[in-house]
Each structure stands twice: as structure tokens, then as C-alpha cells.
Amino acid sequence: MESELTNFIDSLEFRIKPLETAANMAYFNAAVTGKDEEYQKSSDLNVQLSKIYADKESFKRLKAFKESGKITDSLLVRQLNILYNTFLSNQVDEQKLENLIRSQTALEQKYSTFRATVNGKKYTDNEIENVLKTSVSSAELEKSWLASKQIGDSVSSDVIALVKMRNGIAKELGFANYQEMSLKLSDQDPEEIERLFDELDSLTRPVFMKVKNEMDSVLALKYGISPDKLMPWHYQNRFFQEAPAIYNVDLDSYYADKDVVSIAKDYFSGIGLDVSGILERSDLYEKEGKYQHAFCTHIDRSGDVRVVCNMKNNSQWMNTLLHELGHGVYDLNLDMSLPFYLRSPAHTFTTEAIAMIFGRLASNPLWLQDNAGVSADEAVKIREGVRSNLRLEQLVFSRWTQVMFRFEKSMYENPDQDLNRLWWDLVEKYQMIKKPEGRNNADWASKIHVALYPCYYHNYQLGELLASQLQAAINTRILNTGATDVVSMSNEPAAGEFLLENVFGPGARYQWNDMIKRATGEELTAKYFAAQFLD
Ligand SMILES: [Zn+2]
């Protein structure tokens, strides 16, 4: 049975590998050039790939392997699980899938063409965010915030229809609802994830209340009102998912006259993770028609790793480049002798965690001192402000992810409930901001992720938790310092070695929590995140 499975996997790899490589290459070229034909090529290749994974005969065989109980070799068990989940998620009635894709595309267009209207004038999301960040007039803030929510009511029935379609597919595949399916197929136990969010909630609640009180007094002063009059539009972001700027921190000046690409290259080389090959293959600077954000791709699961960026010498792009190169060193240092299907990170959130460990360095005063020529005096001077700012960012984001995770879970359990009310109950409970009196609108539907990138948001938070847990392990085991001490790891090849041996090398050989336990001695927990940012 095991040799039969090995043959099955080999012949699958034989068909998948060239297609997957070509699809990744086409996507990279599309992003870099913006050319229609490359986008077309990329989507055609992805359709071909999904057809292979939709094959009913192959799925039947995988099911038989799984149910035989005769597959015991640990590497084969892991490959079988990964393939089974991939095939299962593609075993959907073609008509249902097509309807879903069509509805999603139509809705995507509604979101991207929507413009908030204030006093008859149309505003982009960026313009609205800019008003929320800079205006000090409560009346203007309120109008802009309300305008940013207009999209909600106009798409809410479409979103509910989508949710029900997704639930229909999930039920057909034997799951209670789409949220449960989505987590289980990505190898996450819904109850375990909920326990982590509960743990995170109880760890962050007291300190969030304290910091939020401090923040409220600063904001009240700024807007000339009393703290109890603060409304959702006073928090400088449509969803209060980012920290308001209440500390005076400007890191851009440290990077303005530097070459952030060579800073990153030298830093990684100092910890024994050479990124020069990645940088040579990458596309780093702005171009006409090019994709405007950033990503990292492993083209062939054999070491062709590249990033796409639009570099500027400022703190945001320093963070982004370190982040993408974090994904890059993970992919590049996978044990290439592992079978094809295990040559990937243990989970999408584990590679996110590595990216976050490195991205966070861009606003780390010690790191600035070691890598960007900031003087020791200057580093001491900015330390408090940077730390307070980082803490506020992490706290605000973590409370927001509580809302997203719990809203999606409950919405997929019962899409017919009063979702407007569910949303505000969660916002009040976790973000601790007030619902405007009598408000009964589909504010939840103004968040595009709820509609179009379902049941993924929690992974950003899990990545933050793991980043802190791994950092704590590096601090205590490798650098012999306190778990929560601020470190830069500069010129500490042992830190790179730790990640290489315990995280990158193993790839997907172990289930993610198994990998985390082997690397840190504990399964994923919120306590290191709490310890790092909350005291
Ligand atoms: Zn990332």
C-alpha cells in the first residue's frame, strides 16, 4: 500500500511540478509587467492545476489510502494528509463552484468601484483614511466615517448570499459550515484556534483597557471633547484596526539617506542567511504598470525564491523588505531533499511569523543602532516612544482580530441572525468603542475581507503569536537573555542557525503545532506575545 501511494504521489508530482512552476512564473511576470497576457497565462495555468486536484478518480484513491490504515511512514502520512485536503477542497460540484466564482467576481467589482460620498463629492479609501487621520473636526470625521460605511448596506445581501453558497459547498463536503471547513482543510482545529483567541483575549483585556484609557485622554484633548464623547470616527481608522498616532515617533528620517536594500542584505548575511541570490532574482523598484504592494514567491520548490517590492528608503519599506525576505529565507532554506509536497512552510501562518520577526526589526532601536547608523544616544532617546507605539499597534490589532475571528465564526454558524447587531456587540466588547446611538447598518459588510477573503484573518494574529514565541526561544536559548528583552540578533549567526534547523529545514515534515513544540518546547500559545508587548 505504501509503495502504491509513493507511485501515486510521484506521478502526481510529475504532472503538477511543471504546471505549478509555470503558474508561479507567470504570476511573477504578470505582477512585474502588468501585462494582460501574463495575467491570462497565470489564470489559465491555475485552472489547469485545479482541474488536476478536482479529479474524482484520484480523490477516490487518496480516500482509500487514508481509510486503509496501512500508511504508517510519517513522511507519507504527512503527504497523504496534505494531498487529501487539497483534493477534498476541490471536490465541489462544478456548477456550484462556478456560481460562487461569478458572484465573488461581481462583488469584487462593487467593492473596487465604490467611492464614499460626502456632500455630493466622491472619495477614495485613501482619501477617507487621510481625513480620519488628520482632521480635528468631529463633524467632518463623523461624515467621513459614515460615508466609508455606505458600501455595507449596498452589498450586505450579496455577502449573505455568498456566505450561504459557501455553507452549501461545505455541507456537501461533509462539514457543518464554511468556517469549520476552511479551518479544518487548512489543518487547524476550530476549537483549538478559539481557545487561543480566548487566551489572547484574557491576556490582553486588562492592559488594553488601561492603554485605551490613556489613548482616549490624548484623543479627547486633540478633538476638544470629553473622553466619554469619543465615537468610532475619532480613532483615525475606518475600523480601528491600526493604532492612532499618539506618540511622536518618526523613523523615516533614519532611513532617508540610506540604501535599505543593502542594509537588509548585510543584516541577513550577518546572521548566516544569505539573501543575495534572492535579491538578484527579484524585482525591487517601481515600474509603470507594476503591482503596487509586495510579495515573496517560491517559483519551483527548488530554491528559485524571489520577492516583488516597490522600494523607497523609508521605514515602511524597510519593514516590508525584511518581511518579504523573512518569507524568502524560510523558502530558500527548506530541506530540498524532502518530498515535493513537504517542501513548503508548515503553514501559511508559520511563514507569516518568520516574516513578522524580521519586519518588526525596522522599528527596533537596537537594530537601528546596529544596522542603520543610529547613534547609541539617539537609540536610547527614541526607545520609549517606539516601544509604546509598538505596544499600542499590537494591542489595537489584536483586539480587532478578535472581532473578525468571532464575527466570521458566528456568521457562518447562522447567517440569518441579526448580523448588524452581532458586529456591534463584538466591536463594543473587544475593541471597546461605542456604537453610535440607534445605528442599525451593515457595517460588517464594509470590511472587504468578510466578503471576499473569508476565514483567513485569524492567521495574521497567529503569526504574531508565533513570532513572539520563536523570538522568546531565540532570546533565552541562543542569546542567553530575557525572553522579552529587545534584541537585534545582528551578527548572531546562531540565531539564524536556530531558525534554519528548527523551522525552515523541516518544511512541512511536521504538523505546524508539532513543529512549534519541537522548536520552542511548547505548542502555540499567546503568552509570549502578551509578555513581549503587554508589560
Ligand atoms: Zn507576509
Structure description:
This protein is an all-alpha fold and 535 residues long. Helix content is 65%, strand content 3%. It has a two-stranded antiparallel sheet with strand order 1-2. The relative contact order is 0.11. The structure holds zinc ion.
What attributes characterize this protein structure?
535 residues, mainly alpha, two-stranded antiparallel ribbon, 23 helices, 3% strand, binds zinc ion
What is the radius of gyration?
A: 24 Å
Which strand order spans the largest sheet, edge to edge or round the barrel? Answer: 1-2
Q: Percent of residues in beta strands? A: under 5%
Number of strands: 4
- Termini separation comes to 54 Å
Structural class category? mainly alpha
Summarize the amount of helix as a percent range: 55-70%
Compute the average pLDDT.
Answer: 95
- Total of DSSP H or I helical runs spanning 4+ residues: 23
Shape annotation: globular
- Helix and strand succession? HHHHHEEHHHHHHHHEEHHHHHHHHHH
Ions, cofactors and other bound molecules: zinc ion
Biggest β-sheet description: 2 strands, antiparallel
Q: What are the low-pLDDT stretches, counting only 5+ consecutive residues below 50? A: none
